[in-house]
Specification:
Bound molecules: uridine-5'-diphosphate-glucuronic acid
Order of helices and strands: EHEHHEHEHEHEHEHEHHHHEHEHEEHEHE
Radius of gyration: 24 Å
Structural class: alpha/beta
Strand content: 5-15%
Oligomer: single chain
Largest sheet: 6 strands, parallel
Length: 430
């Protein structure tokens, strides 16, 4: 099939590359000339494992065609996919201006029958608004259906998630659009959830909100473990064995970050309020997540006392491993607070250094994880990059002023750390 993807961010670029790999002809619209040129040269402005290679292969095969100009691509496509950002506004609701701008600009270009798909995470009812905008500007003789196909990929494993989805949600009442979208995804595994547009839009928000709820729940249980002297690893393991609960997303720590959970939980709360419904549980999930960072800061203060004048090593700045994304990163928040309090930070992250420097100018970044141990009063582990597990912890202790580790992601084994002579604290483990 022939399709146009509008928006070359995380969702747009990764999706376009995978649809091209499936054999579709994909025009990828990038409206910034410089970024388009970089893309054509194989340079991507964020880190995602395997993506550069897949984009290169797509362009070489002629199936993935990055373009600035989208008149002809939109005109001749069977499917036009909107993958633009929906950033949060001051009140937590999603800013839909980019979605509506795209709808307005592509409407007059559509020709014949086209399925317009919304892949951006959008509030319930956005599909209707997009349909109204396009229909009002459509040229005579052309027809459209607007469907919602939300995306469930995770940063760091985006390509695997796209190629092997658990489910493909197709939200439209139109039989014709359903047939087109089932055909578009024919080569992919995963259950098909064929539903109406509003339900599809809500599946996306509810999924992210539920996963965030699991994280905030387990973080509260971890805080309780700290109080009663229980071990959160064993509690989460014991809970997760019940298939009705499941073990995923029960990893306690310093809370969730990223460009999705914080934004989408706020947005869903705000959507509910627009319908005069107070989503109390979700409000608590959001508050618990914010409190979890402060809880860890309290632990740092309790361990180190006054942080002013102390030197602190930080392992990990990204909001999670296998990405250079620092949006809403708990680590960045904690580092910012420590700097504000007068601590000197020596940080290391395998990928997020450049983005962290832009957010925290003057941050001292180290060329390797080991360097963060040199003459420091404590090391904080704030992102669970796998390489941190296998550092030569026994040797690194000798570099520190005092051997204190605060593990915000429960990565290390408390007993082993103590045997090595560390004073070791984590979240919800005795
Ligand atoms: C999340 C969802 O997992 C995807 O399904 C969804 O498509 C995506 O948002 C989106 O809406 O675009 P992502 O934000 O990439 O994906 O990352 P996750 O792996 O979900 O992690 C989010 C945050 O939760 C991270 O800060 C991570 O450290 C934290 N987390 C995750 C925990 O604290 N504990 C856990 O058990 C799991």
């Amino acid at each position: 099939m022939k399709m146009t993807v509008i928006g070359a961010g995380y969702v747009g670029l990764t999706s376009a590359a995978v649809y091209a790999q499936l054999g579709h002809t994909v025009y990828l619209v990038r409206r910034n000339e410089q970024k388009l040129q970089e893309l054509k040269e194989g340079r991507i402005d964020f880190f995602e494992p395997g993506l550069e290679e897949l984009v290169r292969q797509g362009m070489e095969s002629g199936k993935l065609i990055p373009t600035l100009e989208y008149h002809e691509p939109v005109r001749s496509s069977d499917v036009v996919m909107i993958c633009v950002g929906t950033p949060p506004m001051a009140d937590g609701s999603a800013d839909l201006s980019q979605v509506f701008e795209v709808a307005e600009s592509l409407a007059p270009l559509l020709h014949g029958y086209t399925v317009v798909v919304n892949k951006s995470t959008v509030p319930v009812g956005t599909g209707e608004r997009v349909e109204q905008i396009i229909t009002s500007l459509l040229s005579p003789g052309s027809t459209i259906d607007v469907a919602s196909c939300p995306e469930f990929l995770r940063e760091g494993t985006a390509l695997e998630d796209l190629r092997a989805p658990d489910r493909i949600v197709i939200g439209t009442d139109s039989i014709r659009a359903r047939a087109v979208l089932l055909e578009l995804h024919r080569a992919l595994p995963g259950k098909r959830v064929v539903t109406d547009r509003r339900s599809a839009e809500l599946i996306k928000y509810s999924s992210n909100a539920f996963l965030a709820t699991k994280i905030s729940f387990i973080n509260e249980i971890a805080n309780l473990c700290d109080e009663v002297g229980a071990n959160i690893d064993d509690v989460a393991y014991g809970m997760g064995l019940d298939p009705r609960i499941g073990s995923a997303f029960l990893k306690a720590g310093i809370g969730y970050g990223g460009s999705c959970f914080p934004k989408d939980t706020q947005a869903l709360h705000s959507i509910a309020l627009q319908y005069d419904y107070e989503f109390k549980l979700l409000k608590a999930v959001i508050e618990v997540n914010q409190a979890q960072r402060r809880q860890f800061i309290r632990k740092i203060k309790k361990t180190l006392g006054e942080v002013r004048g102390k030197t602190i090593g930080v392992l990990g700045l990204a909001f999670k491993p296998s990405t250079d994304d620092i949006r809403e990163s708990a680590s960045i928040d904690i580092v910012r607070w420590l700097r504000d309090q007068g601590a000197r930070i020596m940080a290391y992250d395998p990928q997020a250094e450049q983005k962290a420097l832009a957010a925290l100018p003057g941050l001292q970044v180290c060329p390797s994880a080991s360097e963060t141990f040199t003459n420091v009063d404590a090391v904080l582990l704030l992102t669970e990059w796998p390489e941190f597990r296998t550092l030569p912890w026994g040797m690194l202790k000798e570099r520190m002023n005092q051997p204190i580790i605060l593990d915000g992601r429960n990565v290390l084994d408390p007993q082993q750390m103590r045997q090595m002579g560390y004073t070791y604290y984590s979240v919800g483990r005795p």
